[in-house]
Write a structure and sequence with these properties.
By secondary structure, the chain is α/β, with parallel strands linked by helices. It is 29% helix and 16% strand. The structure holds S-adenosylmethionine (SAM).
Length: 344
């Protein structure tokens, strides 16, 4: 195997719609200690659910080797996700290994439950920032979303620990589901305004095929912006970079910004530069994909870095996905891969 840190460069690849490969999301575990109703509903992910066997998971060495091969193709950012990435044992070790690859922005998305305990170690290992999911400040509403009675206060403590450790700016993701937590939009906006943390509202999506998604459950980004703007006037802000997932809105009084992720009402497939690596090493070129490409068997049958690099380039070259732009009542029923497995 080649030295992952000093791997060669390869030409930047573009897909059939001219989109370069820039970001890699890595699902480090398909397990989670929450059972969010919109992601891993208890009725499906119950006691008898068969999670992946440990030997099916990519090892830290395998993930690092792939990341370094991806970085040859111009990957600028890696986000660790899952499942809940902080339940993967010794995740700090993986972060330290990935942090040794030059020129990568290294981030992680978490439900925050273990963050108070781990924030300093994550930072010390080389993590740059975190995104924390939190769907309400009201314990009753939050419990209805996470479905394991997890208290809001512990997630807030995780957010503060992350900020204190320098994993900043901390971003907070709130998925909005009509009739469940839309009442929490304004209180969340008020709470995080002026803190330096960036609250982002995500339209509820039809990822996977187990969450029973209906268009009627979606509160659109526009509706969310209008609600907040009526209380604290907002103005649009420029994206930080091309292809940024969230549209940015700034409070006119200078007290910070929010983001809205309108993947249902204003699809952004045109600018999507993200590849996803599943927990067991399959490469997916769309969050809404029904099938992936097996890279683990290449890793485990002695393929060279060059051969794996060529395979990745060929897969990306053929990419034509634009699910959110062509979503219909029929596509919603497709047997799409679950978000906990592919990585959110
Ligand atoms: N366990 C981590 C967490 O809770 O952030 C990481 C994985 S989670 C799948 C990543 C993000 O996807 C979270 O912010 C979650 O709220 C979001 N998400 C999951 N299902 C979703 C859905 N159906 N629609 C919109 N966002 C969703």
């Amino acid at each position: 195997m080649n030295d992952p840190v000093f791997a060669a460069t390869a030409p930047q690849v573009s897909d059939r719609r001219g989109r370069p490969l820039r970001d890699l999301r890595v699902s480090v575990t398909d397990r989670c200690n929450f059972r969010c109703v919109y992601c891993m509903p208890k009725e499906v992910f119950g006691k008898d659910y068969q999670f992946l066997d440990h030997k099916e998971l990519l090892t830290f060495e395998e993930i690092t080797r792939l990341a370094s091969i991806f970085s040859r193709h111009g990957i600028e950012k890696i986000r660790l996700t899952g499942g809940e990435p902080l339940v993967r044992r010794n995740i700090e070790q993986l972060i330290a290994m990935l942090a040794a690859i030059p020129g990568l922005d290294l981030t992680l998305t978490t439900n925050g439950s273990l963050l108070a305990k781990k924030a300093r170690a994550l930072k010390a290992a080389g993590l740059q920032r975190v995104t924390v999911s939190l769907d309400s400040l009201d314990d009753a509403v939050f419990s209805k979303m996470n479905d394991v009675d997890f208290p809001v206060a512990k997630v807030l403590a995780g957010i503060e620990a992350a900020a204190a450790a320098g994993l900043t700016p901390v971003k907070i993701n709130m998925v909005v589901k009509r009739g469940v937590n839309d009442d929490s939009i304004l209180s969340m906006a008020r709470h995080f305004r002026g803190t330096g943390h960036i609250l982002r509202f995500i339209e509820y999506m039809d990822v996977g095929h187990t969450n029973g998604w209906r268009m009627d459950d979606v509160i659109t980004a526009r509706q969310i912006v209008e609600m907040i703007d009526a209380e604290n006037p907002l103005e649009p802000a420029d994206p930080n970079y091309r292809g940024e997932v969230a549209s940015r809105w700034r409070y006119r009084d200078g007290s910070g910004e929010i983001g809205v992720i309108a993947s249902v009402s204003q699809a952004f497939c045109r600018d999507c530069t993200r590849a996803r690596l599943s927990t067991e090493g399959k490469l997916y070129t769309c969050l809404f994909a029904t099938a992936g490409h097996d890279l683990k068997s290449l890793l485990r049958t002695g393929a060279t870095d060059d051969a794996i690099s060529d395979t990745i380039a060929a897969i990306w070259h053929r990419r034509d996905d634009r699910y959110s732009e062509i979503r219909t009542a029929q596509t919603v029923k497709l047997h799409k891969v679950e978000m906990s497995y592919i990585g959110g």
